[in-house]
Specification:
The complex is a heterodimer of chains A (about 425) and B (about 350). Chain A has about 425 residues and is mainly alpha-helical. Chain A contains 16 helices and four strands. Classes of the chains: A mainly alpha (about 425), B mainly alpha (about 350).
Chain lengths: ~425, ~350
């Protein structure tokens, strides 16, 4: 049945399409669906753990929620490779994984955090402590902290990117609290007592903190439900890549290359290292950055090799970009396989060192040569991989040349953003 | 750029490189771009940053340093689009120009250094490893132009900090020049591609594509960041997000980038590029007419519109370059460093 449907799609292709593109993008969509499906399953488990924490705050329930958060990141980070090539993902991802954040928007912060800045007048808004807040001169009733308040009013309030009120990192902050160890070992140390009601409450406004965490968790689940639907049978993201497999192949390569170079190697790794700034860690509250980086690399590997190991251990597998490239240029396919394997291995070294106790924030420390070496070799591997991806683009998309900018010539106003 | 279009015409690979007599527009473009665009740019920045280092060592006070600072910044604007090789190595591009500083790390980190009198400034080798928030042109801009920092005296910690930043810039400028122009340097990596002493690009086509990517991404970043960040939205323009507004260089930087990219485009273009020339000329004229050095005018709807229109014209330039430079060479842009967030 599946084979028949694929055949129908292939028959509808323009004659210039490469044989196999349709199967490759179908498998790509299947992997996306499974990856977001797993992210949803794990977010639902996290949501249940958070409900337990709020109902019965204890060291045990807090630890269980943190453990669920760490597990939830495993499939989600593998999904980041779908982001750049697919506008439907890129337009959405800020809701769930925006970073870095000015956490003072959400809750109490240490005095060393500072106050409002030129860039962000709301950097210490602290909505948990304030039932009435003011944003851009407008007074807002925040008596009840709801998913709508977080998503529609607080998120990117005042058009500031650092006002992140939703998603994994907002939840991370509410579970771990600020990491005040600088570039020394150690994550945030929020106590479960921040969720106790009555006199035992620490940090103030525990009921509102619980409301916030619950709202953020519900929102994460519903946002992931939306993305699973986009990749399911009939979903827009799936239909888009199936409708034009050649463009789908370009989307696959775009996602791999943009994540490797500008995002991962540049924005997330090199910049943080050069600032020696632990706040530039991707998962700075939980010290889980080594895993976030590693699973980004695994996600790139998944898309290239056409396989994904689900959170229940089952394998999603089909025709791969690697196969497609090998049919056009076997030597280049082997180069890209080697490059992708190499970058996963380099990211794995960071993960291994971090799990043995040399945490990512320590690696960022000024003058920490071992940390710099670990991070920079992984950056170099990602940059090198990007060059090979560019070569693969040249081979796999050669029939699709279009001259850029014709829209802008016709109507410059229309395209300027 | 979110949408990828890194494309090469395979037929260009058939162009013979071996015979120097054969017409070889791709190789000619590469030679022109490397020898008459990149090498002079690298040399200018090395000279200007070296002069800055000497000037600051002689007299660290803001009024004495500012002319050399602006000369070095001017030279950097002629080089910063070449985000490759020695400019990218060791994160130099970030160390020389850390912008945008979205979290205000520069003033916060500078204040910390000054309050603690952090001794790292006395050791150039160690300072070269310090946070990029206290290094480079933007840290120096705070020290020279911002009220919070610029009142220091000769011999003070801040004075030595200014000297350390200037020295570090001079050191990086010279290292870039050395690594670019050496016998086995990056210029040859571009020119000889697969046959270079240190190969990075497998073919001259890849070298040309890399340079073309630098050309287009510099214009995109200028439109999306230098202009886009400052104009914000109609309801909420953001003059305090303009690049280098403290030193009133926002307008000048855009103009210098347009001139640098025009020069690179001319060197790469295999033939005439009349539409690109006209678009560059018009856009540069619009920037010159602005008379708004720090982009403070974006706070006003008319002033904002003028800056926004410059961005629109940059989009027009990009379209013409694709047709007059990229397409005839058979290349279009690859991945660039601002593909991320």
């Amino acid at each position: 049945m599946k084979r028949m449907m694929t055949a129908v799609i292939a028959a509808a292709l323009p004659a210039t399409a490469f044989a196999g593109e349709a199967e490759v993008v179908t498998n790509y969509a299947n992997i996306a669906e499974a990856t977001y499906g797993d992210a949803l399953i794990k977010a639902q488990e996290l949501d249940a753990a958070i409900a337990d924490l709020i109902a019965k705050p204890s060291e045990h329930t807090l630890l269980a929620a943190k453990t669920a958060w760490i597990a939830a990141r495993v499939p989600y980070q593998q999904s980041e490779v779908f982001r750049f090539g697919n506008p439907i993902v890129d337009d959405w991802e800020g809701k769930v994984n925006a970073w870095p954040l000015d956490e003072g928007l959400i809750d109490y912060v240490d005095g060393s955090y500072g106050g409002a800045t030129d860039e962000n007048p709301l950097a210490v808004l602290n909505v948990i402590a304030n039932p009435t807040i003011e944003i851009s001169g407008e007074e807002i009733d925040a008596t009840e902290i709801t998913p709508e308040l977080l998503a529609e009013t607080l998120h990117e309030a005042d058009e500031v990117e650092a006002n992140v009120s939703t998603g994994y990192h907002a939840i991370e902050f509410l579970l771990w609290g600020q990491d005040l160890n600088g570039t020394d070992h150690g994550a945030g140390t929020r106590s479960y007592t921040d969720y106790l009601t009555g006199d035992e409450c620490t940090g103030g406004h525990c009921d509102r903190r619980g409301q916030y965490l619950t709202a953020a968790s519900k929102l994460l689940v519903s946002d992931l439900e939306y993305m699973v639907a986009q990749w399911s049978e009939g979903g827009e993201a799936r239909e888009t890549v199936l409708a034009d497999p050649a463009a789908g192949v370009t989307a696959m390569l775009t996602g791999m290359g943009s994540l490797s170079y500008g995002e991962q190697a540049g924005e997330r790794m090199k910049l943080g290292l050069m600032l020696n700034d632990p706040e530039e860690e991707h998962d700075c509250f939980s010290d889980n950055t080594h895993n976030s980086h590693f699973y980004d690399g695994v996600g790139i590997h998944n898309v290239y090799t056409g396989q994904y190991v689900r959170v229940d251990g089952t394998l999603v597998k089909g025709e791969s970009l690697e196969d497609l490239l090998a049919s056009k240029d076997p030597a280049l396919a082997a180069d890209l396989t080697a490059a992708v394997d190499h970058s996963v291995a380099e990211l794995g070294q960071i993960k291994a060192a971090a799990e043995a106790g040399f945490s990512y924030d320590q690696m960022l420390g000024r003058g920490n040569e071992a940390g710099e070496e670990l991070i920079m070799t992984a950056v170099d591997a990602l940059v090198a991989q990007t060059r090979v991806i560019e070569r693969a683009v040249a081979v796999l998309t050669a029939s699709e040349i279009e001259v850029e900018g014709s829209d802008s010539l016709d109507n410059p106003e229309a395209v300027f953003q | 750029m979110r949408r990828l279009a890194a494309l090469c015409f395979p037929l260009m690979l058939a162009v013979p490189f071996a015979s120097p007599m054969a017409a070889d527009p791709l190789n000619d473009a590469l030679q022109r771009a490397v020898n008459t665009h990149t090498v002079p740019a690298v040399e200018r920045f090395a000279g200007a940053s070296h002069a800055l280092s000497y000037t600051a060592a002689d007299n660290c006070l803001p009024e004495a340093v500012k002319p050399a600072y602006n000369a070095a910044f001017d030279a950097w604007m002629g080089l910063q689009h070449l985000h490759m090789g020695p400019v990218e190595a060791n994160g130099r591009i970030l160390a020389i120009a850390f912008w945008p500083d979205k979290k205000g790390l520069i003033p916060r980190t500078l204040s910390g250094y000054i309050a603690d009198e952090d001794p790292v400034i006395d050791d150039p080798e160690a300072f070269a490893q310090a946070s990029i928030a206290v290094r480079g042109l933007f840290a120096l801009e705070y020290m020279l132009y911002d009220d919070q920092f610029d009142g220091y005296e000769d011999g003070s910690y801040s004075c030595h900090l200014v000297q350390a930043i200037a020295h570090d810039l001079g050191r990086m400028g010279q290292a870039i020049e050395a690594e670019w122009t050496a016998d086995d340097g990056f210029a040859l990596t571009l020119l000889l591609a697969g046959e270079a002493p240190h190969p990075l690009y497998l073919s001259r086509m890849e070298s040309v594509q890399a340079l073309y990517t630098m050309l287009t991404s510099a214009l995109e970043v200028t439109r999306d960041q230098r202009i886009g960040r400052s104009i914000g939205t109609f309801e909420k323009p953001r003059p305090a997000r303009a690049e280098a507004y403290r030193s009133e260089r926002s307008q000048r930087n855009v103009e210098l980038i347009l001139m640098a990219t025009r020069d690179l485009a001319r060197k790469l273009a295999p033939g005439e590029m009349p539409l690109s020339e006209a678009a560059f000329e018009k856009t540069i004229a619009l920037v010159e007419e602005l008379d708004d050095p720090a982009f403070a005018g974006v706070a006003d709807p008319m002033g904002r519109l003028k800056v926004e229109i410059i961005g629109q014209n940059i989009t027009t330039i990009l379209g013409h370059l694709a047709n007059e430079v990229g397409a005839p060479l058979g290349v279009s842009a690859g991945f660039n460093a601002s593909d991320g967030d």
